[in-house]
Design a protein that fits this description.
The chain has 277 residues and is mostly beta strands. 8% of the residues lie in helices and 25% in strands. It is globular.
Length: 277
């Protein structure tokens, strides 16, 4: 799921968290628009900040399709019902792990207000027409130009499992702003645990209305163009946060076309934090 080029012009803003020495006992950061104090440990002399600078539109990734890369970890399997422990990912700093855990906890707490598609619709979300895939995305297009980033109170997209006939809320999907790229991901969420992706090959049909609705209506051709009457998506970085067990961890992308494109060209399947659906 990606933002289309026509509908949105404003950009989101993120705050810069006060830097703290990673050898201290706490880290103050901005998550979901709120100051959060997180206990961390680390090497003395390092600092941690959350900064999301503006930049030019991301260049399209060229690796299609992506391949899966399994991360070997010794960790606690991911099951929201049994608490959130995302430790043990190689290359992930303690501060990054703490921020990721906090984001999952807040998403688990706030997202159930959209437990039904009717509730989502009443809040301004509209389907992009992908229920047939088994994972239907509903988007509140107004949130794509607001000032909230990684805020479970204002998720840009909601994901519902439609495989059993009754849509069941399963994830939030957070997006950065138009014009931002992978290098603009806040540092606390740029580690190997939180893998982001873009969509550079989707074509949308603008249905208009208030709230606005846009439907996925096709894919780009070999030259990267959409058919006449459709709009090519802007490849804005985005990330899922699953509130149910997922076989590839709490930040997994979807399979196939839904996986999009990653910065590395590989889809990370976090087997260490996997849960059986």
């Amino acid at each position: 799921m990606a933002k289309s080029a026509k509908t949105h012009t404003a950009s989101k803003k993120t705050g810069t968290a006060p830097g703290t020495t990673a050898g201290s006992t706490t880290l103050t950061t901005i998550v979901g628009g709120h100051a959060v104090i997180i206990p961390v440990t680390g090497s003395p002399g390092t600092t941690a900040h959350v900064v999301t600078p503006q930049g030019p539109a991301p260049t399209a990734a060229t690796t299609t399709p992506t391949t899966r890369h399994n991360t070997t970890t010794t960790v606690k399997p991911y099951d929201p019902a049994n608490g959130i422990d995302l430790s043990g990912t190689p290359g992930e700093t303690p501060a990054q792990t703490a921020a990721a855990e906090h984001l999952v906890r807040e998403t688990l707490k706030d997202l159930p207000r959209y437990s039904t598609e009717a509730a989502a619709y009443a809040a301004g979300y509209r389907t992009i027409g992908d229920a047939f895939t088994g994972d239907e995305h509903m988007v509140n297009w107004a949130y794509l130009s607001d000032t909230h980033v990684l805020d479970p109170m204002f998720p840009e997209s909601l994901v519902y499992n439609t495989r059993n006939g009754t849509p069941t809320l399963e994830a939030a999907m957070f997006m950065l702003s138009l014009g931002q790229r992978f290098s603009d991901i806040p540092p606390l969420f740029s580690g190997p645990l939180t893998q982001w992706h873009v969509h550079n090959n989707l074509c949308f049909r603008d249905m208009g209305g208030n709230p606005d609705q846009q439907l996925v209506a096709g894919l780009t051709d070999a030259d990267g163009n959409c058919p006449a009457g459709l709009e090519k998506s802007v490849p804005v970085p985005m990330i899922h946060v699953w509130i149910v067990k997922n076989p590839c961890g709490p930040f997994a992308a979807l399979e196939g076309i839904g996986a999009g494109q990653t910065q590395s060209g590989t889809r990370n399947c976090d087997k260490g934090h996997a849960g059986v659906l």
